[in-house]
Amino acid sequence: MKYLKFSQYIYVIVGVYFLYDCISTWNGDRNQAYLSLFLFVMATFMFFFRRHFHKKFEDRNNKQ
What we know:
Layout: H1 2-25, H2 30-63
């Protein structure tokens, strides 16, 4: 289960990439920028979702 500890940070890296892509393409191709913005929001959501469940699993394992 160690991969759960590190996989949440992959979403941060992916989110930063999509935020950079959104900012860099905002004046050129607005549809691409909106897609990148959506993917940034989804990556941020997945980071917090994974972090929540990682803490939940840790608490469950510590009680046993």
